[in-house]
Write a structure and sequence with these properties.
With 102 residues, the protein is of the alpha+beta class. It has one domain: Arc Repressor Mutant, subunit A (Orthogonal Bundle), CATH 1.10.10.10. The chain has 4 helices and 3 strands. β2 and β3 form a beta hairpin. α1 crosses α2. The N terminus is likely disordered.
Length: 102
């Protein structure tokens, strides 16, 4: 799984427990990536011919962490929705899916 640093570094850092500022500058993103790389959660490589572009890739430990975080997220969502009547829950899920899919 490859991620372009400008689009994906902050969400990845957040999922791994890093707390970047809401508007982290490029230097801040690099520091976040440094911490993720030091924890062996991501690897980086430059685009051949354009070293300004950096690609990051989840490592095996990064993938395992992302999977655990996703499972936790799903359980949290289920717990939040359990109090809704089935009809309301289905409608909420339908609306969120509609927004997500455009």
């Amino acid at each position: 799984m490859d991620y372009h640093v400008e689009n994906e570094a902050r969400p990845l850092a957040h999922q791994a427990g890093e707390r970047p500022s809401s508007r982290s500058p490029p230097r801040g993103r690099g520091q976040n990536l440094d911490r993720l790389e030091a924890r062996s959660l991501v690897g980086r490589r430059r685009r051949p011919g354009d070293r300004r572009v950096v690609y990051i890739k989840l490592t095996a430990p990064g993938i395992r962490l992302a999977e655990r975080l996703r499972a936790t997220q799903i359980e949290t969502c289920r717990a939040m929705l359990v109090g809704l009547p089935v009809r309301d829950r289905d409608e909420l899920i339908r609306l969120v899916a509609q927004v997500a899919l455009g």
